[in-house]
Design brief:
By secondary structure, the chain is α/β, with parallel strands linked by helices. The protein is built from 10 helices and 13 strands. The strands form 3 sheets. A 9-stranded mixed beta sheet has the order 4-1-5-6-13-12-11-9-10. The chain has a two-stranded antiparallel ribbon with strand order 2-3. Helix 3 crosses helix 4. The longest helix has 15 residues. The protein is globular, with a radius of gyration of 18 Å. The N terminus is likely disordered.
């Protein structure tokens, strides 16, 4: 009960307590300029997206990534401008109760971190929401949600649902640039790139699971022919040189979209990426159809 009261208080005080940053008018203008005027798909019905940016360490709410405010603003404004969805921004964990979560079409973890809640009912409700046909999307640090620091103890069901778990530091730090390639040019989620890769500076996670592409339909990844890590790399990643940056996957009847982009606030004023994110959101909501067949399975079919 103590945990629930504490988190509800954060929600009542506002999102700023969790992210610790307010956007300047100039930052808002940059994000506004990056948001598409139209969504790639027409919503089948009015959609609601629950957005959480809760960050917790040792049972206490902590300040999260400074990009949280930019991400929340971008999500709120792209929903309003395109009419694709309504973003409901809340860090109140009570929103994940079975009776409340059902009002949403998808859940977004925007740079959430740590053990967001331990209540078994809330955990079952979150996973059941996705497997039952709901959508889930995560940005950047969402991949370290439900991680107990400093031992990096994960909640395995969440990692399986999302598609991977981080445990190995950052091969590229926030100021490091690298090349990104378009892994599936035919996906509607990648239409904005027209098959062309790009350069970007961003912090990069590496995932501890082997054979990532056996579970993930990779959309964007680091082009290792044009990029060199600046920090240490896990042995398994040294071997396969695979660093997915965005992917989709099916989870039961539900749909998952994850973007490792989002540590740096400028990501949310990058027009092509914002359009890519909007397409990913509409996929998770169920309005944009896309092939989520794992990349390895697709590759084997082509042989």
């Amino acid at each position: 009960m103590k945990q629930t009261v504490q988190y509800s208080l954060v929600a009542a005080l506002g999102v700023s307590l969790a992210c610790g940053q307010q956007l300047s008018p100039e930052q808002k203008q940059q994000i506004d300029a990056a948001i598409p005027a139209k969504a790639p798909a027409k919503p089948k019905k009015p959609r609601r997206l629950l957005v959480s940016s809760l960050c917790v360490r040792d049972g206490r709410v902590m300040r999260g990534h400074p990009s949280i405010a930019a991400g929340n603003y971008a999500l709120e404004q792209m929903g309003k401008r395109t009419g694709a969805f309504e973003a409901v921004i809340s860090n109140d964990v009570e929103m994940f109760r079975p009776g409340k979560i059902k009002q949403f079409d998808a859940i977004c973890f925007n740079n959430t971190q740590g053990v967001l809640f331990e209540d078994p009912e809330l955990k079952d409700s979150l996973l059941g929401f996705v497997t039952g046909g709901g959508g889930f999307l995560g940005f950047h640090a969402a991949v370290v949600s439900f991680v107990q620091y400093p031992k990096y103890d994960f909640w395995p069901p969440f990692g399986r649902m999302l598609g991977g778990t981080e445990n190995g530091g950052h091969p590229w730090m926030p100021g490091d640039s690298f090349a990104v390639k378009v892994d599936d040019p035919k996906s509607p989620l990648n239409a904005v790139f027209k098959g062309k890769g790009f350069e970007i500076a961003e912090e990069v996670f590496q995932f501890q699971e082997p054979a990532l592409r056996e579970r993930l339909h990779v959309l964007l990844s680091i082009d290792m022919d044009k990029s060199t890590p600046t920090r240490s790399v896990l042995p398994i990643r040294q071997q396969d040189k695979d660093f997915p940056m965005t992917w989709i996957r099916s989870e039961g009847k539900g749909r998952v979209f994850y973007s490792a982009f989002g540590h740096n606030a400028h990501v949310f004023s990058n027009a092509p990426l914002v359009a890519h994110f909007l397409a990913g959101i509409q996929y998770a909501l169920g309005d944009l159809k896309a092939d989520a067949t794992p990349s390895a399975k697709l590759a084997s079919r082509r042989k």
